[in-house]
Amino acid sequence: MFERLMLAFAFVLMGLAPLAAHGPTPQRAEERVTIAAAPDKVWALLARFGGIGDWNPLVKKVSVTGGDAAGAERVLTLEKGEIAEGLDEVDPTARRLSYRLLKENVEAFPVSFYTATIEVKPSGSGSEVVWDARFYRADTTNEPPEGLDDAAAIAAMGDFIRQGLEGLKSQANGQ
Amino acid sequence: MIAVAAMARRLFAAFGLAAGVLMAGGSEAEPLIAVVSQQAGVVTLIDVGKATVVTEIPVPRVPAGLAAAPDGRMLYVTHPDLGLVSRLDLASRRVEASFRVGREPFGIAVTEAGRTLLVSDWSADALIRVDAATGRETGRVGIGRAPAGLVVDAADRRAYVADRESNQVSVVDLAAMTRVAAVPTGKAPFALALSPEGGALYVGNVQSGDLSVIATDRLEETSRFKIGLMPYGVAVTPDGSRVLVSNQQSGTLAVVDPTSHAIVASPKIGAYPEGLVALAQGRAAAVAWAEDKVMIIDIAQSRVVAQVPVGAGPRSLVALPDP
Q1: What range does the domain containing A103 cover?
Q2: Which residues of B sit within 8 Å Cβ distance of A?
């Protein structure tokens, strides 16, 4: 941990941000859930960029800077470590937001880079939430070890989204 | 009997395809484009005017980049995960040969009237020159980290390569196979395109969401402006009047005036658009990666006019050149 902090500090000193390295073969995840609650109510939960810890059970803690507008950043504490995400675009009319991974930590989450979009659509008297992501495995060389390969990335991203959507559903319906 | 009939049909179809390729530049013939689908492992040929699939050619696993020979008869496809480049014969509609090239071959261009390939190697940080007939490496030059897209000028004098993780474009003198410049850009340059007369190079910077303009005479970045989220495709219309950028995360096409740098239109063109090509008659085509479609766009009308389903995970595409 100390080493990592020193490394991060060194990058700051050098004026360089470590780029999220990623190879050329992206993967895709898309999950959806229907929720009885109205779209505005679901969107209110989603639009709070630092609120993900309230409804995604895999997120233990969140710290956010920059509020809920494009450019905001959040650090998610997961079971095995932290990752950082940046909010790229918020469209309240379409009830849609897009974000990306800013700082990878393949021990905590075996994905080297991702962008993702969550959208709330009206569905009957309730909502449908669509969450999709485009991502790269943790080890982008041609012989990734088990746990850092496409399968691990697909499993982790799918799990994060599915548990998130289920949590969002309980939270929205419970309020 | 059935087999003979099937073979006759196949021969006829192959001939029809070859004729289509030959006539691609003619007045009534519509242009063909070739599309790589990474997950499905296929190359699809599309008739742009009819918005139909002409044929689908299976290729080795995880194809990524592609380039066409100037006679429109051969296609070359990179397979970064396999360290291979495949050559497709369009008349027989099959992979004719696969060559080992570098470690993770990604971007590709065809030069010297089809005799030579240039390939960017994502993990070896090099531009590799390959004999198109034999697949033998005939030269290489070290460039920046994670080189992705590459373009070659009309005279085959220089290659410009987007060094994604070095935030620069490497300029390579092709006669000497030496790097003559590294021009700083925005963060994570990926795709690039030259203006028709070759004076301006447009570079999409994926992470910083902007477009760099490089003057090729001075080899300097003369402008950089915001373009959209995750710009993954760049093209210039044949008449040079518009620069087009596909913004993958925004799902939009930025239509740019090259003089004022104003974004004059920004239509939605599908989910996660990436590879992009400008065509004749005011059209463009882009892949919608998450929708497994190719979108045909009317640039003046600023909208998608046709959608063509293709194999899963389309990444890049190329217009087949006039013979």
Answers
A1: 29-48+88-174
A2: 38-39, 62, 64, 80-83, 103-104, 106, 122-123, 146, 148, 165, 167, 187-188, 207, 229-230, 248-250, 271-272, 289-290, 313
Contact between A142 and B104 using a beta-carbon 8 Å cutoff? yes
Phi, psi of A24 (to 5 degrees): -85, -5
Residue A147 in domain: yes
Contact B198, B152 (CB under 8 A): no
Residue A6 domain-assigned (yes or no): no
* Domain hosting residue B238, numbered range: 2-319
> With an 8 Å Cβ cutoff, is A30 touching chain B?
yes
Min Cα distance A95 → chain B (Å) is 14
pLDDT digits (tens, 9 = 90+) for A27-50: 999 999 999 999 999 999 999 999
Greatest distance between any 2 Cα atoms in chain A: 54
Distance CA A153, CA A93 (A): 32
On the question of pLDDT at B16 being above 70, the answer is no
Chain B residues closer than 8 Å to A88 by CB: 229, 249
Residues of A in contact with B103 (CB under 8 A): 142
Q: Among all chains, which residue has been given the structure tokens 């004026």? A: A15
A14 in any annotated domain: no
Question: In this predicted structure, what is the pLDDT of residue B23?
Answer: 37
Number of domains in chain A: 1
What ipTM describes this predicted complex? 0.74
Domain count, chain B: 1
Q: Per the CB < 8 Å rule, is B230 touching A115?
A: yes
- The residue written with tokens 């990335």 in the block is A153
Report the CATH number that the domain containing residue A129 is assigned in CATH.
3.30.530.20
Q: What is the model's pLDDT at position A93?
A: 96
- State percent of chain A over pLDDT 70: 86
Query: For residue B10, what are the contacts with CB-CB under 8 A and spacing of at least 6?
Result: none
Judge whether residue B13 has pLDDT over 70. no
CA distance A161 to A169: 12
| pTM, rounded to two decimals | 0.85
pLDDT for A7: 47
pLDDT digits (tens, 9 = 90+) for B134-154: 999 999 999 999 999 999 999
With beta carbons less than 8 A apart as the criterion, state whether B163 and B150 touch. no
Determine whether the interchain pair B313/A88 forms a contact, defined as Cβ–Cβ distance below 8 Å.
no
| Within-domain flag for A96 | yes
pLDDT score for A51: 96
Which residue among A26, A28, A142 places its CB closest to the CB of B103? Answer: A142
Contact flag A117-B289 (C-beta cutoff 8 Å):
no
